[in-house]
Amino acid sequence: MEALLRAHGITRRYGPGCALCLDSTGADAGTNRCPTCGSVWACRDVSLELRAEEALGIVGESGSGKSTLVKLLHFDDPATSGYLELARLRQLEGIGGIYADGCDWSRDLFSMDRYRQRRVRDASMGIVYQHPHLGLRMGVSSGGNVAERLLSAGWRSIGAMRQRASHLLERTEIPLSRMDEPPRNFSGGMQQRVQIAKALSGDPPILLLDEVSTGLDLSVQARVLDMIRTLREELRLSMVVVSHDLGVIHLLCQRTMVMKNGQVVESGLTDQILQDPQHGYTQLLVASQLQ
Amino acid sequence: MTTAPTTQTSVQPTAVPASNSVAETSSRGSMLTIRNLSKTFRLHMLGGVELPAISEVSFEVLPGEFVGLSGPSGAGKSTVLKCIHRTYLATSGEILYRSAHRGTVDLVSVAEGEILEFRRTEIGFVSQFLRVIPRVGAQDLVAEPIRLRLGVDLETARLRAASLLDRLGIPRKLFSAYPATFSGGEQQRVNIARAVAWEPRLLLLDEPTASLDKRSVDAVVELFAQLRENGATMVGVFHDPELLERITDRVVRIGAEP
Ligand SMILES: Nc1ncnc2c1ncn2[C@@H]1O[C@H](COP(=O)(O)OP(=O)(O)OP(=O)(O)O)[C@@H](O)[C@H]1O
Ligand SMILES: [Mg+2]
Ligand SMILES: [Zn+2]
Question: CB of A269 within 8 Å of any CB in chain B?
Answer without folding.
Answer: yes
